[in-house]
Amino acid sequence: MTPRVAVVMGTRPEIIKLAPVVAALGPAAAPLATGQHWDADLTDVFFAGVGMTRPVQPLRWIGGRDRAGQVAAMLTGLTDWFRTDQPDAVVVQGDTNSANAGAQAAAHLGIPVVHVEAGLRSFDRAMPEEVNRLVIGAVADVHCAATPGNAEHLLRAGTPASAVHVTGNTIVEATRRALPAPAVRAAVQAAHGVVAGEYVLATVHRPENTDDPAQLRALLQALDLLGLPVLLPLHPRTRAALASAGAVLPPAVRGTGPLDHATFLALAAGARLLVSDSGGVQEEVTVLGKPLVVVRRSTERPEAVEAGFAELTGPDGVLPAARRLLRPGWPEELARRPSPFGDGHAAQRIAALTLAAAGRREPAAGVLAIG
Questions:
Q1: Which end of the chain is more exposed for a tag (fewer CB within 10 A), N or C?
Q2: Beta strand ranges found along the chain (DSSP E)
Q3: pTM for this model (two decimals)
Q4: Any idea what DSSP says for residue 132?
């Protein structure tokens, strides 16, 4: 009998990163949307982009609540859903409110919890995602760590070694699959009025950059000083923050609407430099071989920095960091470097571990190496 695996997703990154896992699980997968992201540009477009029919969404009025309200409502709703649906295992990804609530709901009902992208740590509890990571890490049964460093965080925290598995990160295969062909990339870049190698692609959405008007203005000013046209896809949070602060995009910065994953990757592949506060972009640039300035206080993905793809800085350090990353020969070196996030087979490993947890076969012992 085929086991039933609930795959919980509530945000754009979860859709992208869990799509390969859903495909690898095949008929066992039962995707479930929480509604944490509710805008069609952040949900329907991405489900279509990964070739997934929009999943069942048993919860209502989740999006737009504050963090505590979201987690509380999702925890109650998902507990009721799992109690009725009775999945054999529940998969959650990353560090979102949806992942937190999904993991807790399953754990309270005694359903095995598989945590994809386990073991990330910024050691900055002012970051809401860090608290989510800690909670999920405390209740998960199978920890699918993207890197040996992530696995080490779990082991140091007392997680049993048999529960920790280094699988790689599904962003590698997701990026490779979604990246358009060169001709399509060129057409996308032309449609956005940019020329390959002659522009910057930026994204800004984290509270530390959008909720402080002074920080937001300083970041926009830093983008304006880079000496290249800057494309800035505007997340709904960023658009609202700009309006609230009365901020205007500077001359070099051109805002766009939200982008689907393939379009974003087409633009990222042609950019000379990326500037972002996104966690996912820190991973994607390592697959694309592109330099990135990370505008954040801390990062849970130090591998991108250690491998030379990224530099971490505040707005006042954007220009110096950009100069270092664009020094002669370095962009070409990055284009040749392998991603530190795995070999593109993470989804198969995660699916096998999930089916084992669901009772199809005995789980393998934890491993601390990809392959």
A1: N
A2: 5-9, 29-33, 89-93, 113-118, 142-145, 164-166, 200-203, 230-233, 253-256, 273-276, 292-295, 310-313
A3: 0.90
A4: H
